[in-house]
Amino acid sequence: MGEFVVHRVRFFDYMPSAIRAMAFNGSMQRLAVARGDGAVEIFNFADNYFQEKVIPGRSDRAIEALCWVRGRLFSAGLSGEIIEYDLEKLRPRYSVEAYGGPIWTISCNSQETLLGVGCEDGTVKMFEILEEGIQFQRNLDRQKGRIISLSWHPSGAQIAAGMIDMIRIFDAETGHATHRLLVERGLGTTRNTEVVVWSVAFLSNDTVISGDSAGKVQIWDAVTGTLIRSHLITKWDVLGLSVSQDESSVIAGTSEGTVVQFQALASTMGQENNQWVRTRTFKNHTHDVRALVHTDTAVVSGGMDTQLVVRPLLDKVEKNTKESALRKILFPHKSLVCCAKKAGLLLFQFPDHLELWRLGESSAKGQAGDRLPVMKNPEKLLQLQNKGEDHICCSAVSPCGSWVAFSTVSSVRLYKLQLSNGNISIKKVSKLPKELHSVHQLCFSSDSSRLFASSAQASVVVASLDQLQCKHLHTLKPKSGSSQPIHLLSASENGNWLAAAHTDGQIHVFNLHKLKLHCTLPVYSSCPTAIAIHPTTGHLLSAHADQQIFEFSLKLKEYTAWSRSLQREGLHPLWLQRDTPITHIAFNRNKPAHVFLHDAFMFCIIDQSLPLPQARKKLYNQMDLKTISPQKRIQESHAFKICKMFQHLLSVDLLDDSSLVVVERPLADIVSQLPPPVRQKKFAT
Amino acid sequence: MAALCEGYTLCGLTPDQNNSTSGIDGIEEERDSDHVIVTDSNRTVTLYKVSDQKPLGSWTVKQGQTLTCSAVFNSQANEYVAVSDNKVIRIWKEGDVLLDKTFKATVKADIWKVHCAGGEQPVVLFRRGAVRQLEHLLSDPQQPIEDVLAEDEAVRWSAAIAVQTQQFVLFTTELGGENFFYLQRLNPHSLQKYHLEREEAGLLPLSVSASYKDDHISLLCLYPNGFVYRSLVSVRSPVLDEGPRALPLPRNRVMSLPVGEGRLKAASALFLDDSHIAAVGAHHPSAGADFLCIWNINFQTLQAGKEMGGKIYGQLWNYSNKFFIPHGKRLSVIPFTCHKSSLASALGKLRQARPEESKCPTYVPSWNKILHEEKAPLSKTGETRKTRSTRKTQASLSLTAEQVLELVKTAPAEEVQKEVAELLSRQDIQDLQLGKLASILVCRSQADPHFYAHSSFVHLVHSQFLCHSVCPDLLPLALERKDYFLCQMCLLLFPDIPEVLTCTCLKAFICLPDVDAEKMCLEPESVSLMETLITSQHCQGDLQNGFSPPSRVEAHSDTANDQQTREGSEKATSRLVCPVGSHKAALLNGILQTAYSDTFLLPHLKDLNSQHVLLFLRYLQFLYLRYSQDTFPQAHSERAPSLHQILDWICMMLDAHFTVLVMTPEAKGFLLNLHGFVQSQVKLFSELGKIEGSLQELQKMKRKQDVGQYSIEIIEIF
After folding, report:
1. B251, B197 contact by CB (below 8 A)
2. Does residue B230 belong to any structural domain of this protein?
3. Binary contact (B714, A372; C-beta < 8 A)
4. Which residues from B are below 8 Å from A362, CB to CB?
5. B508 and B649 belong to one structural domain
6. Is A374 an interface residue toward B (CB < 8 Å)?
7. Is residue B92 domain-shared with residue B134, that is, in the same domain?
8. What domain range is B487 assigned to?
9. Is B119 within a domain?
10. What Gene Ontology biological process does one annotation of this record name (chain A) (predicted)?
11. pLDDT of A227-254, one tens digit each?
């Protein structure tokens, strides 16, 4: 296959934000995750945990709790507002001020008619859930001290509130507090510090379970208001609790990074008197576990160390299947790096700014395995700071490197760059067409004369770029009434085609000359994670969350022979077992048969001219091929050439001079930027 | 022993008009022990090379500005830090010529002092008690500075101490005649407030100094009445809930410096080590004032003194065994030496310090108590009041100590025992009286062959108020009367038995037939320990420190001929049989645990005959093998000699009798065994040495693979 010059880039200081809250919608199999920067991410658990939507954050939005009500998502936070999100436009739909100071928790009753929020001023406020919004109904009896956590009794008649040093139980009907459960403080020096009940859970058998800052998980009888059992599980805080659907299991997350499972078990076989017994301890985090979800089959946890961990419960899933594997989601499933192929520039997207870098150069030649001396160091050309509170949701740099565009939920900004022998000048395009105001994805045509932006109602805005002008040309709309946002855009190199993929799995291809829909691909069950149109053959390649790959001929409007044979023979089992999605597809103009793809742990070159790997053959065979003779190598090699030399990849792209750009973000670098974890005794220190 | 060397002048002084202050603000150590920076109270900072007595650089602030705190040297950044006009932090390097062109930062509150302890980052202490790390402060100089101290509270003295990674800022304050001590920890920040006990009305400390040792900060306060107090503050103590409450800081008086007439005006005291303080401004006991003195606080003796010409300003600094003292019109440097001086170190090897011992020290009477018995209170100040009252109540019930002293001279043995036991059970007894009591009893026993107060002696020794020096005839008497239990107790509890007596005891114990020894009643713990050692089944599986006795025999058999091998294997089995009985062994253990100095002990050891030497060596070898074989609880029992003590004694016995042993045929196998052991240890260490090199290489290789931020690589894909 040959040698490649690789620019190995590690200067993208991407820092994921800590996970603050999570909510799981069992009927939709969607997990909503709120991060420290206010962003909300939606993961589809039915589709390989694919991160299908990201609602960008806002610097003043500190989300403390999330709540699903049927298909609607609400959040509440320290700003004191309750926000409902528009999951199609990927932005807040409206926000309602609760007038109770910062909100610590939000909880919906099982009838899904009332939303309770716990406020700093000691009130539990009830909001009625209406079709078009929420409306304040009333306050429950006001307490001294903040309401940290809330949990409804499944009947909806009572609500338990975790506070400082105590738990209150309210009658939801009258609004009066019926019980006061005093929570004991910690021992020793912590006796003087008040104990915070970080989390409560109200079960249908009138049991209240609480987790507090003294490290205890306590089980209370809500009828008598008495403590039944207390488990000290950590020296630090128990930050979160989550109960399984059938109320037979509870998990608790601690500041030590452990998740402890409790199960209601009968002390003797066949008897009814179940007791809560501590059963398992999972340690998948180094820092605070702030958010927890107990799904039917797995423990989902997230916290300060920014990783989302899905730990299947092995008694609930079949062993040695894909479901039984531990999954850690480290990086976004969407590329934050944009590469200007012609100009050799990299655009890095941060929540509040963009960085534009020029790659270094080396004039030396070398053999495989060499590291070339860098003649010219990479150079940071530009740092574009976003104004305003809203975070950047998408960005793009044109292939020639002369245009940079980015968008927040409220506005799009476009800049013209001029690079002349070391000097850089930047001009903002002041007048943008009004159609460009809220976009989810941006893309430039290969000749940099067009800007494509996916907009509301699944439409694509086409704008022409000329000197310092940007004019609206057309808005492309698919015929079918899909309203799910477009999360992927790809224009063909010859300027004929534009492909757009929706989060519901639809892929539309538009003819850019006629400015109308060319065809719609057959909808596949799994969401596309990357699409690209081949520069010479005009085939559309799509990779999906379940690791399938399809190739569709745009001329013939049918799957190509290669795609059919791939489906017929099936992908290699090891390929299907990978747990990070393909996030980018690139082609080599000079070698039309080569396709470049990458996920977080490998990049792969598919040589479509070679036979596909058989299931019993070795998929990762680069090391084997290296050692055998060239003749034998031809016999042994197969289409999937996988390189695992680079890890924790954020981007792999091919420049026009056929050199590769690999953007790595080593985990150690991320870990080093995290705050120190809680101190733990090791070896009697 | 401490001594002051000949001093020399570092620079001249320009005292102010009324000659009350020296004109020196502070002296700080610079990059090494030979460089100091001197800040004078006007505008100048000067860097001196001390041994050359010459300035290397000098920096002055503009006319109209003043330096308000002494400059410090930040060795991490090679920078000087000073403060001018209370609020302006100035930082410069040695190369900078003009101070005005260097870095300045103005902060929001008045600075008291900048401290830089032990190569750590500088720390800024504000007048109102807030503490900031300089780095943090400079990152936002306009940050608000909180008030820690009360309205009229003012900082009087401050210092910084760095302990490993932890840094402490200490300062004392005064508020309406009361003095407080603050201990500010950095990273994590916490502040602890202590209340210093009040001296006589209106007396405020003249000088304060602090030193750090073994997790404790000791604070030395000198008051105008010449009293020097020491307070210990544990730095490991848990950080209590921070409140306005000030903890009382207990103190004890370590010295009472002579003051002449009236009170001290300008004086200063510093810790040199555990037992020495340096004082300036106090009177020399025989000459007049204006002396620099070194006092031993254990023995309350003057160790060295030097007259300082001219006025003394009460300022004293100590850096790397040099005093810096401004006096008259110059700043003098006086090098000094200060060695540990304790009775035991003068006489021989110190007892092995064990953690248990540090808790309950043996009460060797100090000269202070003997000479100023009534004047100097007991060190436990908190208890004095209580003991006084108990003494009053008890005196009416039973005999006073003086009466007992009279009584024991004549009374029958039973009555003596009863009275002594009663006296010991009281709390207020004084060690000196016990010493007298013991000497009287010993004298009487020596004079009267029928009188011997065994249990009284045992009680007295047990009280730990006795030592050999107080009652030198007790141990010989016990030996003479064959009271081996008392001998054992003395060996275990006295810190100062002369080597000649140790040797006499050893001889007596070895000669003692086992049959007689078994009948004796000895200290039960030591006997039971030896019994378990002798009888317990050994497990040969464990190795310690890579050394296993059987493999050693094998290694040794490679070189020796067959006969020796057989001998060796016979020995191997016999070696684990204790050559002495458990009672005798318990007595010998007492010997092993005494303090000694080998130069003094060796000549006396030569008196033993070869049979005894061999027996003793076999016993030592037995002990050693037991220790190295199983993980025997060496450290658990106070009655068990440590492995080091055993090895020291083996070496000493071999040194003393080497030629004799070489000539003795029975000793041959034994010596070969020891030789084999040493060989195996040498082999182990040489192997470890070989591994070291490879391990270092591994570490180097790892470092090489580190990828930087960017690289251009060539890969090949097949």
Report:
1. yes
2. no
3. yes
4. 712
5. yes
6. yes
7. yes
8. 399-494
9. yes
10. hepaticobiliary system process
11. 999 999 988 899 999 999 999 999 999 9
* Helix/strand/coil (H/E/C) assignment for every residue in B187-227: CCCEEEEEEECCCCCCCCCCEEEEEEECCEEEEEEECCCCE
Query: Are B718 and A626 inside 8 Å of each other by CB?
Result: yes
User: Which residue in the block uniquely carries the two structure tokens 């932005």?
Assistant: A91
Structure tokens at B627: 């220790």
Q: ipTM score of the complex?
A: 0.83
- Residues B438, B468: one domain? yes
Predicted confidence band of residue B637 (pLDDT cuts 50, 70, 90): low
Q: What is the pLDDT of residues B388-425, one digit of tens each?
A: 444 444 444 456 767 777 777 777 778 888 888 877 77
The answer to whether position B455 is within a domain reads: yes
Query: What does the pLDDT average to over A179-186?
Result: 89
- Closest to A487 measured CA to CA, from A44, A72, A45: A44
Say how many domains are in chain B.
4
Task: Tell whether the model's pLDDT for residue B248 goes beyond 70.
Answer: yes
**CATH numbers and ranges of domains, chain A:** 10-16+331-421 (no CATH), 19-245 (2.130.10.10), 246-329 (2.40.10)
With beta carbons less than 8 A apart as the criterion, state whether B527 and B586 touch.
yes
CB–CB of B605/B657 below 8 Å? yes
Distance CA B50, CA A165 (A): 63
Q: Cβ contact (<8 Å) for B715 and A369?
A: yes
Same domain, yes or no: B489 and B502 = no
Name residue, tokens 């900031």: B132
Provide the shortest C-alpha distance from residue B707 to chain A (in Å). Answer: 9
Nearest to A286, CA basis, from A323, A328, A231? A328
* Residue A68's pLDDT band (cuts 50, 70, 90): very high
The answer to whether the beta carbons of residues A6 and A659 sit under 8 Å apart is yes
- Among the candidates B444, B463, B494, a domain finishes at B494
Whether residues A366 and B241 touch (CB distance < 8 A) is answered with no
Taking the C-alpha atoms of residue B197 and residue B203, their distance in angstroms, rounded to an integer, is 11
Between CA B418 and CA A561 the distance in angstroms is: 113
A-chain residues near B717 (CB < 8 A): 1-4, 605, 622, 641, 643
Q: Based on the fold, state whether residues B678 and B584 are members of the same structural domain.
A: no
Residue of A nearest to B239 (CA): A189
**Cα dist from B394 to B375, B387, B391, B398, B434, whole Å:** 22, 10, 5, 6, 17
List the structure tokens of A220.
Answer: 């209370």
Mean pLDDT value across residues A205-214: 92
The domain that contains B71 carries what CATH number?
A: 2.130.10.10
